[in-house]
Amino acid sequence: MGALDGIRIIEIAGLGPAPFAGMMLADHGAQVIRIEQPGKPGWDVDILSRSRDVLQVNLKAPEGRDIVRRLAAKSHGLIEGFRPGVMERLGLAPEVLLGDNPALVYGRMTGWGQNGPYAHAAGHDINYIAMAGALAHMGRQGEKPTPPINLVGDFGGGGMLLAFGMVTALLSACRTGVGQVVDCAMVDGTALLMAMTWSLKATQEWSDERGSNLLDTGAHFYEVYECADGNYISVAAIEPQFYAALLRVLEMDAALRETQMDRSHWPEMKARFAARFKDRSAEEWCAHPEAAESCLAPVLTMSEAARHPHNVARSTFTELAGVIQPSPAPRFSATPAAAPRASDDDRLTLSSALLREVGLEHDAIHRLQLGGVIG
Fold this sequence. Notes:
three-stranded antiparallel β-sheet
């Protein structure tokens, strides 16, 4: 059933990074109970909410908040993605829930963190990666910064880091019996993702000038080039042996290896590479016998990625209810993740079972339904 089988997490429904953390935990076997507001419309297709048990609870009602407290008292963890202070105003602050359940792991997902001058400010991914010192380095030389969708802040430095934080704190709680608060901020997480870049900066190998460095399209051997068919190919021949293979694929002078890291040659070589890649299609370049040792790969759209033979062979993508989506990752040899499932459709039966588990009888459940406390 997955590496986290037997772990129960309460997820207070939100958008983006916290649900992504919930998805990761559920993908790997945790029972994640998603608390949603009754009557609130959701997305027609929401991959991030897969593999959850769903309970609709009105958190504005005292009885609704009491249900969450009862569930949290019987759970290993809780995750929420509100601005600082919201859970406190609801009466569901960490000290309250940890008072009920001292071993609880309470995960908090925000952009700016629980404290600091910006803690209560509004924001989104682009703001957080900008403040973390990442966005300024994304884009080409002489052009404005280019946001990488919302992958870095929301999901890499946000949801994925929260999932890591939850598992780490859960391990600690299993060992010590003591829970804690996990303060996960997208600014912090994005800064952490830049660790290697900070190393390069410390050794004078990284310039603040965007698009002039080894890994930001400054180098001709770490770039994207248009091919004869209008498609693009990615090149990442950093190591000398891979660069030498790339030169053979491009049928260029092997002596050019000597000047690979000479930055004064990079603009000229980039122009030469661009002209050469225009001679063949992306498929032809990737079919070259030495392509695999040249660090070449086609630039695929989402639709193309789902059909690529390598991804098909590894089942990198899966189909659920007619929707193509990423499969659970990473992969475990002894406790493989089960196939994703849609959120439980039999919500009335599920809700009743969960509510009975926390001590509510049939008449009380019916009364709460009539009163709009639960869906």
